[in-house]
Amino acid sequence: MTSEAKFNSSIDANYRNGKFNLYGSYNNSVTKNFNFGEINRVEQDIQQKFEILNNNKSHLFKVGLDYYLDDRNTISVFTNQNIFDGWVNVDSEINYLANAALNESQFTRNDNGNDSEQYNFNYKHDFNDDGHSLELEVDHNTYDGLSDSRNNFFSSQRPNFLENTDTDRASSTINLDYSNPISETTKLEFGLQARLFNTNIFYQSDARETNQSGVYIPTTTTFDYTRDIYSAYATYGKTLDKWSYQVGLRAETVAVDSEAFKKDLASSDETTIPFDNDYFKLYPSAFLTYTPSDKNSFQLNYSRRVDRPGIGQVNPLPEWSTPLISQFGNQELRPQFTNSIETNYTRQLENGSITAGVFYRIIEDEIQQAILIDRSDVNRLFFTNLNFDNSSAYGIELSSNYRPTKWWSINGSFDLFSQTQKSVAESFDTNQNIVLNTVKVDNIVWNVRAFNNFKVTKALSLSAFGMYSGKNKNIQFEMEDMLMVNLGMRYSFLEGKASFSLSYNDIFDTMYAQFEGQTPYLQQGRFNWESQQISGRLSYRFGGGKYRAKSRKQRDDDTKSGGGFM
How many degrees, rounded to 5, is the angle at CA 212 between CA 207 and CA 214? Predict the structure, then answer.
């Protein structure tokens, strides 16, 4: 069973006077959680266990100002300032079940802190009251972080070593959006965007790596990564009686320039690894809707989208390691592209609605995690991310919101899809030579979710959430199914200005990741995280809450998350 202790507090203030709306907030988060897991190499009788304790603290300050010049023009600015510090202790042990004399363990202590800043400017001009507008938004973010790690080994030939990482990151986004409802049935939108991103990471260690003679040496590595994206988009929508459609096109040019520079401090040997990836892409989209009556609606959609690798997936510096496992990013990782076509039918019911759909997707250069064999020690594995061959998926989706009674409402969804993946995996032949194998995986997955809300009285409501995810296969692993059930309640008092909420997540302690892999070794593993937790929240609203800060347009950053195994 995992455990988590969390304390959050926040305060918000808003003041409106004439043309000015001033607002601010402070949020504090203190979190301490414990996770554990294990990976077993069945045929080698090797058992690896992990225990992870995190302690994090963050302070987030936000201050903003909206200035209403007149009925048509608004200027809005805000800044977020976040201060974070934390530490993590990782205990890992390796048990050789056939020879206990080889057992070894490792203790890693990591202390890290960072300051991040966001500055946002927004200007909007409304030509009329019907949505005809021009909007400019400029957003700038900076990040400055330091991380120190101490790695101690016991009953091992490997020496202790220290690591230090200094990260500086900056990103700027400029958006210009124009919207024009030409008529009651026609709307035109277009815009321009520039996204500029740069990160510089300096890493040093006194004895993490070995030279060609197998001697542990001090090293430094500098990783510089720049990605600049310039794009333009246009959408056109029209309604014709029972039919409506929208077509769009986004064009972007991308320039990626990265360089890893490594230096052996013992011999002064230097290695430079550059990588560039410049490309121009078009992303079309089309949406067609037919509504024969108030109760029935049909839709046919096509879209193409991109998922670019995140900085953690391309950073070649070590993320974590044990004597048998390490994890690195892949500097040469390319984005994945998804072409999707789907059709949906929506039926309006007396007390809700139901939507059913069918989809087909082709994913080009899919980003997935891979397990490779360390050539310097074939007993060691390292995790990284690779672009696999194109994959395809098709399936069905069902969703519904329904109110059986005045006091009970349900939101549910179900999806089932089939996916085919083809790539390569490393293994050993009968002579223990490393070979590449072509692997094809056919995968069928289904998921179901349901959220229930029960209104007991005007002030008290109860909730129950359940989800189930079926078994899932990829190139490396077969994941077991997962189940989670959450319960909650909310009570309002003081004429609705105050509320108390209580939640209990994963009440049966069934939400964990369990997996099995065949290559390069037969492996079985399981990891638990802080899914089971009880939390309470007390809130009170001062004033009438009539005024709110000016909202910003929601945008997709097109970045693929994940990549960390643990």
Answer: 50
Contacts (Cβ under 8 Å, ≥6 apart) of 440: 420, 421, 422
Give the DSSP H/E element, type plus range, for residue 1: none
Give dist(CA 269, CA 385) in Å, integer: 28
Characterise 543 by phi-psi region: left (phi > 0), alpha (psi -120 to 50), beta (else).
left
Q: Which amino acid is at 156?
A: S
CA gap 491, 91 in Å, rounded: 42
pLDDT at 430: 76
**Mind giving me the DSSP string for 312-325?**
HHH--SEEEE-SSE
Contacts for 460 with CB less than 8 Å, ≥ 6 apart: 489, 490, 491, 492
Name the residue type at position 496.
G
Q: What is the pLDDT of residue 562?
A: 57
DSSP string, 216-276: EEEEEEEEEEEEEEEEEEEEEEEEETTEEEEEEEEEEEEEEEEEEEEEETTT--EEEEEEE
477 alpha-carbon distance from chain centroid? 20
pLDDT the model gives residue 211: 83
Which pLDDT does position 414 carry in this prediction? Answer: 97
- In the numeric block, the tokens 């210009």 are attached to 176
CA angle 354, 357, 358 (to 5 degrees): 165
The whole-number pLDDT of residue 3 equals: 55
* Greatest CA separation for the chain: 81
pLDDT in the model for residue 455: 96
The C-alpha atoms of residue 68 and residue 8 are separated, in whole angstroms, by 33
Q: How far is the C-alpha of 488 from the C-alpha of 501, rounded, in Å?
A: 7
- The answer to whether the beta carbons of residues 364 and 389 sit under 8 Å apart is no
Q: Are 248 and 237 in contact (CB under 8 A)?
A: no
Give the residue carrying structure tokens 């790695």.
151
**Low-confidence residues in the chain, pLDDT < 50:** 566
Query: DSSP code of 159?
Result: P
Please give the model's pTM, rounded to 2 decimal places: 0.89
Tokens (6 digits) for 197 = 């991103």
* CA 231 – CA 251 distance, rounded (Å): 5
Question: Distances from the Cα of 171 to the Cαs of 79, 193, 240, 469, in angstroms?
Answer: 15, 13, 42, 36
